[in-house]
Design brief:
Blueprint lengths: L24 E6 L3 H9 L6 E5 L2
Parallel strand pairs: 1-2
Length: about 55
């Protein structure tokens, strides 16, 4: 997984959405790491969604 320091809501602990399905989040980080997320997406290293946290 591309994150060196997974957030408390990493893909393994992200809650299911209203439909009860897994949200498929494979990368999560702050806006200061946005370039890392974009690079991982463009290089096709993520097999799911990238989420940028606000705040």
């Amino acid at each position: 997984m591309p994150t060196a320091n997974p957030s408390p809501r990493s893909p393994r602990t992200a809650p299911a959405g209203p439909s009860g399905k897994d949200p498929q989040i494979t990368w999560r980080g702050g806006w200061d790491r946005a370039e890392e997320a974009v690079t991982a997406l463009l290089d096709r290293r993520l097999h799911g969604k990238a989420v940028l946290d606000i705040g």
